[in-house]
Amino acid sequence: MWSVHDLIVAPATPPGPGPRAIVRIAGDGLERLIARLFSVERPGLPEPGEPPLAATARLAADVLGREWGELTVGILFWPGPAGPLGGPLAEVQLPGSTPLVEAVVAAACDAGARLARGGEFTLRGFLAGRLDLVQAEAVLAVVDARTPGELSAALDRMAGGAGGDLREARATLLDLLADIEAEIDFADEATPDAVPRADAAVWLAMDRRLAEATAGVHDAATRLRLRDAGAAELPRVVLAGRPNIGKSSLFNALVGRDAALVADESGTTRDWIEAPLPAADDVSAPPICVVVDLAGLPAAAGVGIAQDHPDSDAAAVESAAVAAARREIARADLIVICRDAADSDDRDFVEHACGVAFDVRTRCDRVPQPVGPGGTAAIATSTVTGCGVEELAQAIRAAVAGLPPRSSPATLRMAAGLAAAAGPLAAASEAVGLAAAGGPIDEAVVAGQVRRAVEALGEVTGVEIGTDLLDRIFSRHCIGK
């Protein structure tokens, strides 16, 4: 079972050489552990309630100093409770030495700490209300980011948590719940919190408060939806093949417009061009993916293998174009291998490409019955007759639909929590609105609906969530995160 009080330690930087390394330590008894392992210079560490402080310290002579000497280190210390984890936290900044990092972690464990589980630091920030689920999941996305775009999207999610607004809405609903339950429990007593049963003005005020909380939940759901849509790029489908085999014509036919320049000369496309593919056979339909037309790859290179000819300016341009194509292939979700129907020996691209989705023959109006590698069926296309273009488009749409969802699991969980809160809020608003208009009211029903909404918001803000689900969410994070 997770605990937010255990004293935990872990490296916060990856192993290997580097100018600096960080060991992160948090939990009850942190000050005693630091005093055991380090000699902190004046003025010492801040007290609870004080702002964080970057202190200078030395390895304690009778512990780590025996082997490493009295090495100078930095300690960034948050005393709590106003810190990133809601409790005491220290980041010990060391020279980038893996053996030294391991020695500090081992010494901390000998002094009473335990090695943190994967994601345990992030979990504590979540439980302390410093992160919402989307931000917590974004920590993992930052670690796993493979491209600058993925990293930027993850950082945006970390900076744009909706937890604060949802906690405010939840607090409003808790106040409402207290007032309504006061009416149920003390209807016959004169108490300051009692809600007069016959006073429609009080129910009208409650109706307004419910409307504000409902609007906050709705706005958070809208921002979450827009933010996730903006962060997730559409799947990328690249057209790869040799120069001058009709890829650009096929690209234009797929996207429904003349987006790429088409000419008979080899090498017309020198850079990649992209355009959205609609989700249906209608250019006004929402896009389902991005189709990318790559520069033609040299026959001897195969997919993603460039030819280098430094003595020729033209060859240098070709090499740069092939390098750009190679990068696009590396980030592609699906690859469409395009081969000229007239070329029966064009197999390099299929053999050298990873994740090939389709084998396509272009310009099939010139050669009947094209086949794929090893005699397998190929999708025969011709932009002159229109043959196979829609078949290929439908095959791409079907393959894209089968790709894993790009939405963050945390975003999906938060969206589900907001949806779970919206239903009870609507039911409560309807009942309270009826009472405000002078109609009958069942306070117990209203209280039950508001309580359901509070519980749903508690699950996405970290106030109420099962330990089993927490294990699944945070154990995928790196140790030290």
Rg measurement, Å = 31 Å
CATH-defined topology of the largest domain: Rossmann fold
The low-confidence parts are 188-198, 261-270, 300-310, 350-354, 371-376
SS element count, helices: 15
Question: Mean pLDDT, as a whole number?
Answer: 75
Order of helices and strands: EEHEEHEEHEHHHHHEHEEHEHEEHHHH
* Percentage of residues in DSSP E strands: 15-25%
- What's the number of structural domains? 3
What's the story with the biggest beta sheet?
7 strands, mixed
Question: What shape does the CA trace take?
Answer: flat
**First-last Cα distance:** 18 Å
Please explain how this structure is put together:
- It contains 15 helices and 13 strands.
- It has 481 residues and is of the alpha/beta class.
- The protein has a seven-stranded mixed β-sheet with strand order 3-4-5-6-2-1-7, covered by helices on one side. It has a six-stranded mixed β-sheet with strand order 9-10-8-11-12-13, sandwiched between helices.
- A hairpin with an 8-residue loop joins strand 9 and strand 10 (287-293).
- Helix 6 runs antiparallel to helix 8.
- The radius of gyration is 31 Å and the shape is flat.
How are the elements arranged and paired?
Blueprint: E1 8-11, E2 18-26, H1 30-37, E3 38-40, E4 53-59, H2 65-68, E5 72-78, E6 89-96, H3 98-110, E7 114-115, H4 120-127, H5 133-144, H6 148-159, H7 163-185, H8 200-231, E8 236-240, H9 247-255, E9 273-278, E10 287-293, H10 313-330, E11 334-340, H11 348-352, E12 356-362, E13 379-380, H12 389-401, H13 409-436, H14 443-461, H15 467-474
Parallel strand pairs: 1-7, 8-10, 8-11, 11-12, 12-13
Antiparallel strand pairs: 1-2, 2-6, 3-4, 4-5, 5-6, 9-10
